[in-house]
Design a protein that fits this description.
hpI Integrase, Chain A; 3 strands; 54% helix; 3-stranded antiparallel sheet
């Protein structure tokens, strides 16, 4: 865990997931009296089979195997293990899911869901606007401080996975929402009501008690807003991030620009969003290709 945190720069949430997966793996080996250096590919395959029989999804099994691979690779490189038994194990096939994006009209409704002129309404509108304006992960938003926002330049500094920093532009609507939230009758009002010893004055988004909002608290804001307009079944913690990427691509943004904005290390990760825009792609093709425009009329004549 120290290696993952210090040398690999993994986020605390990733480390917590690794810890859970490796604890389960350790229990599996302990029940069978197998030490870590005695593990063979067959043992790991039995472990995966056990998870399959327990009804775990392919994505959960793939994540568990990734943790096991990481552990055995660490043992090989750092602890003198004779080999890496996980290298020969084939992982479960995980169906590549297409991110679910909201329509632009649904986004407008969602951003308008928090109603009122009180501090919490100002805060919630700023949260929703900033998530959609920047494509930030909820955890990245939770870690923001007021100094991370440069309103004059229209930029926000985000700290992403692996402690990688990126600077992302912020649009006018989000900046206006942030200005109202940072005004004297909103954020400062919540901080003034809090116990000074327990307040988080360095946090951009705070609770009614003046504490930095957690990922879970920000997700509740998104979910509650979705519930108010009747689309809670379409909303996930990443829905605004997915919509941000999809709408940029729909309106002609270069995929490498979107990659930089999302903070993806690989363009392959970003390319999944291009699948969401197939309808847009088809409309553009039919509108632009000279022979595509005649297709429907010609087909009807043949029929």
């Amino acid at each position: 865990m120290s290696y993952l945190a210090v040398e690999r720069g993994r986020a605390s949430n990733s480390i917590a997931s690794y810890r859970r997966d490796l604890f389960a793996y350790e229990q599996f080996l302990s029940e069978r009296g197998i030490s870590l250096f005695e593990v063979t590919p067959a043992v790991i395959e039995q472990y995966l089979e056990k998870m399959t029989n327990a009804g775990l999804a392919a994505s959960s099994r793939a994540r568990a195997l990734a943790a096991v691979r990481g552990l055995h690779a660490f043992c090989l490189d750092e602890r003198g293990a004779p080999s890496d038994p996980s290298a020969e194990v084939e992982g479960p096939r995980v169906r590549a899911g297409v991110p679910k994006a909201l329509s632009e009209n649904e986004i407008i409704s969602l951003l308008s869901a928090p109603i009122g002129d009180d501090a919490l309404a100002f805060r919630d509108r700023a949260i929703l606007e900033l998530l959609y304006a920047t494509g930030a992960r909820i955890s990245e938003l939770a870690g923001l401080s007021p100094t991370d926002v440069d309103a004059e330049s229209g930029l926000v500094r985000l700290l992403g996975k692996g402690q990688k920093e990126r600077v992302v532009p912020v649009g006018r609507f989000a900046l206006e929402a942030l200005a109202r939230w940072m005004g004297p009758n909103a954020r400062s009002e919540l901080l003034s009501k809090a116990d000074r010893r327990r307040s988080d004055a360095g946090a951009l988004f705070v609770s009614s008690r003046g504490r930095r909002m957690s990922r879970q608290a920000i997700w509740r804001v998104v979910n509650e807003s979705a519930r108010r307009i009747g689309i809670e079944d379409k909303v996930t913690p990443h829905v605004l991030r997915h919509s941000f990427a999809t709408h940029l691509l729909d309106h002609g943004a270069d995929i490498r620009v979107v990659q930089e904005l999302l903070g993806h290390a690989s363009i392959t990760t970003t390319q999944v969003y291009t699948k969401v825009s197939q309808d847009h792609l088809r409309r553009a093709y039919l509108a632009a290709h000279p022979r595509a425009r005649l297709r429907r009329k010609a087909v009807s004549q043949v029929l």
